[in-house]
Q: What sequence folds into this?
């Protein structure tokens, strides 16, 4: 595994960085904007954005002059293919996702949603159909993501873990 790939996978194994990637899906933002939205310090936001940039998970979409300095605007390019993680890296990512899901669950609104937990046996064809639908839904929500608090939008969560299992 290359050093770049290891850096990329490790960068996503942090709940705060997962939140940043989600945030930067909807629009490019500066470290100060990310800090305000996530209620963290500017220095903390800058540090984690640099980690994501070094891991090639975000891009600098532009720069703007602010009070005599230059602020970079970062964006998460959702159309970029992601590397296949090792089992150790994937375990760390799943742990970060679980932690983040628990945080988001506390923010849920009562009402309609979808909660599914299933360990089932299906044909390979049905599995592929289900996986294709979930992938399409994930791409739709990422492609249509808006800047936080845009008028007419609502905050939502979509956490998906679909995978084939070994036969017992």
A:
């Amino acid at each position: 595994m290359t050093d770049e790939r290891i850096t990329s996978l490790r960068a996503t194994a942090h709940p705060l960085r997962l939140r940043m990637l989600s945030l930067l899906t909807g629009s490019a933002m500066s470290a100060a904007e990310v800090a305000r939205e996530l209620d963290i310090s500017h220095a903390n936001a800058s540090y984690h954005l640099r980690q994501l940039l070094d891991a090639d998970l975000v891009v600098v979409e532009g720069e703007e002059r602010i009070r005599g300095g230059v602020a970079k605007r970062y964006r998460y390019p959702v159309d970029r293919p992601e590397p296949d993680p090792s089992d150790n890296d994937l375990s760390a990512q799943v742990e970060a996702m679980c932690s983040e899901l628990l945080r988001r669950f506390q923010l849920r609104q009562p009402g309609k949603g979808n909660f599914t937990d299933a360990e089932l046996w299906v044909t390979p064809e049905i599995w592929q159909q289900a996986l294709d639908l979930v992938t399409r839904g994930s791409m739709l929500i990422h492609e249509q993501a808006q800047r936080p608090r845009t008028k007419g939008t609502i905050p939502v969560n979509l956490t998906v873990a679909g995978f084939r299992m070994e036969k017992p």
